[in-house]
Structure formats: C-alpha cells, structure tokens
Amino acid sequence: MERNGHLALEETVRTRLLGISAASIDRVLAPVRMASLGGRPRRNGHSSAVRRSVPIRTYADCNDPAPGFMEADLVAHSGPSASGSFVQTLTLTDVATGWTECAPLLFREQRLLGEVMTAMRSLLPFPLQGFDTDNDSIFMNETIKAWCGAAQVTFTRSRPYRKNDQAHVEQKNGAVVRRMVGYRRYAGIAAATELARLYRSVRLFVNFFQPSFKLMERTRDGARVSKRYHAPLTPFQRLQAHPDVSDAIKQELTAQFEVLDPVALLHDIRQAQARLVVLADAKPTDDTDVADGADVEQFLEGLRHAWKEGEVRPTSRRKPSAPRGRRRPDPLAKVPDDLRALFDADMAQTGRELLSKLQFAHPETYPDGLLRTVQHRLKIWRAAIARELVFGVRQVASDLMTPGAMRDVEASRVGGHQNPTADLTSPSDILREHLAEATA
Fold it and tell me: Which of 262, 264, 260 is CA-nearest to residue 295?
C-alpha cells in the first residue's frame, strides 16, 4: 500500500504496526469484528475436550444394572426469571430401584458440587458405581471427572437434547422435586438450609413409602407402542428383593423402616414447605401454620378432610392475582374535556384525526405513541352512544315516546338524509328532551 501510494503512516505508527503480533491484532480488532457481525458474539462450545472424553450412555444401554448406577440432574429454583443467583437441587436416581436422593446446591460451582456429591454418597444404602449426567458444563469439567476417577465411579453422559436417555431422573424431577418444592424462586443461605431440612424428610418418605411403576417391556407394532410394567413397589421393597444387595444392607434398611412414621414425616414436610413459602414470598401467609411444635395428632385429623379443600401443599398454592386495571397514570388526564369536545363536534373522525387536533392545540405535549390510547377512548365513547341509541330507544319509545318523537330520533340517527331540513341535534339530546316531556 505504501509502494502504490495508498498509505502514508508516521514512523512511530509504522514501527509499531510492523512489530505487532497476530494475536494482538485479533484482540485489537475484536470489537470491530463483533460490530460487523451485528453485535452478536460467537458462541463457543463448553467443555468440549472433557465432553469428548466422557462416553455416552443412551436409554437402550441400561441392560438392567445393579443398584448403584445413578442418573443425576439439576433443577433450578429460579422462579419466573433466570437472572441472578438462586438455589438449585441436585437429584440422584438409581436406575435399578428408583432410590432418589436430593440436595440443595447454593451456587453453580464445581468444587461445591463435588462436596455435595461426597455427602450424598455417604447417605446411599448401596455403593455408588455409576454417575450419568447430561451435558451441562457444571458436570462436564475436569473437577467432576477427577472426583469420579478418585471414587472409582463410572462417569457417563447422555446425548445432547435427548432427555429420554435420562428418563429416570427426569421423572423424579417432576414427581419429587417440583411436587415437593414447587416453582417459586429460592435464593440465599436461608432457602438452601430450609431445602436441606425438607429433603431430609422427603428422602425417607419417598424411598420407603411411595411406590412407583417400573417398565418391564416395550413392544412396537408399526406406529403403536405397547408397554408392560411391573407391580408398583417402593425403592425400599425393590432393594429388599434385589439379589445383588447384601443381607447386611437389607437388615439395616428393615430396622430403619420399622421406626419410621409416615404421618410424622408428612407433617415435617408440610411444615418445611410452609417455611419455604414464607422465605419465597417474604411474608407469612394467613392460612399457613409454620410453627415447628404443631401437634402431629391435629395434623393427622386434618388429613381426614384434606381432600375437600383441594391442594394442601403450601408450595403449590398460587399467589393471589393482582387486581387488573390501569397500572400507569392516564396520559390524557389533563385534556379529557377538550378531547371529548373534539369528538362531539364530529363523531365520524378517526383516532388519528383526533390526536392530530390535540397535538395542534398542545404542541410537543402528546406524542404519536398515544394513538392506541385515543383509539381506545374513542371506542368506549362510540359504544356508549350506540348503546344509548339502540337499547334506550327500543326499550323506552314504545311506552313513553310519541310517534313524532320516534320519527325525530330516526331522522337524526341517519344524519338527516331523509329530511334535508331536519335539525342536526344529536340523538342523545332528542332522546333526553322527549323523555323529560313524557315523564312530566
């Protein structure tokens, strides 16, 4: 470019330009390239190297594994907005028995996830042998891969966008987590602590007292798929019947089952749910008792007629809807009479014409964005006049109005076209005059 006379640089700039590296050029030109692409940064794949090193396990690869091969997933408690920090629930579900463990995760952080998994591993009644996750970056990283290697746990992943590969844990996300916790937003240490308190009772109630179906076989005949299921059993019962579970584990689970009270567990769950609602809504509800010392016998008595009251889970009760109506000040509050006068002068004009006249009378006050507001106001006025013309005349004319008054109203309704010399007084004024005369 210099040789052909297209470029003339100062010596300092020329020296720095010849000495810059390719990487520095890419860094300096990054904003320019982003602007040329419309301001959209290029999306890069996350954890691609780790993801390639983790083998894929599909729904057809289960092959009736022994207890200990578990699917894992995260459930976000973000409420209506996914911005900011919020608590998530880590769900582990055993493929063979359906045994489910849940734990709150205060932040999406790899080391914290490893610590939570270590704590959950100690609660399992059987050794953890397999850990199957989706392709989320919180799982696909060196920290979790190293944790699985140190614990001698087989680490697998599902196919992207194939939720059927993790059908067991996906079902528990709805039947356990969402059913128990709901869809509110939970954030902060207090919410995580209360969720952990809730899951201590949930794990016992679900695994020992909640039966579920398990698929036996699936056959396809053309487009028709037929499924057969085993008899419904609880995860505890499936562990008792599984031949790969040792007798020591079975005896320990049996001893634990004999001291559990399902009503007391359900009472603790309801109390924890009520406290979660208080944290999420930031104010206690009038119909929810959040006291820890509530009588279990009174709670049991309430269960006898709970079916009449509908949904009894506090986390599933919807907030009362806010009253509908105008939510911002009326932009035409200063000129209602002026706008109505312009409308009464010519009822056939459009909202655009009314707004133009209003803008001419009040320059730089009412922008074009108020067109829909004016049109809505115009629609209300025309509906009121139409109601007065149609229903008012038909209901009152036969009893109170003379035939001459009816002819005057009809002539005014059509704009005086039947009688060119007719008075152009509005139909509402004619109606009021004749109603006053008839009443007198």
Answer: 264
- Distance from C-alpha of 359 to C-alpha of 342, rounded to nearest angstrom: 12
Two tokens, residue 2: 């210099």
Sequence letter at residue 145: K
Looking at residues 317-336, what average pLDDT do you find? 74
- 83 contacts 172 by C-beta, under 8 angstroms: no
Please check the confidence at residue 422 and state whether its pLDDT lies above 90. no
The answer to whether 210 touches 97, Cβ cutoff 8 Å, is no
Whole-angstrom distance, CA of residue 215 vs CA of residue 402: 82
The correct answer on CATH 3.30.420.10 for the domain covering 50-196 is yes
| Distance from C-alpha of 5 to C-alpha of 15, rounded to nearest angstrom | 18
Q: pTM (2 decimals)?
A: 0.62
Phi, psi of 197 (to 5 degrees): -65, -40
Question: Of 96, 263, 100, which Cα lies nearest the Cα of 174?
Answer: 100
Closest to 366 in 3D by CA, of 331, 342, 326: 331
Q: Is the pLDDT of residue 227 over 60?
A: yes
What is the residue extent of each domain of the chain?
1-42, 50-196, 336-439
Given CA atoms 414, 420, 426, 431 in this order, what sign does their dihedral have? negative
pLDDT tens digit sequence for 144-186: 999 999 999 999 999 998 989 999 999 999 999 999 999 999 9
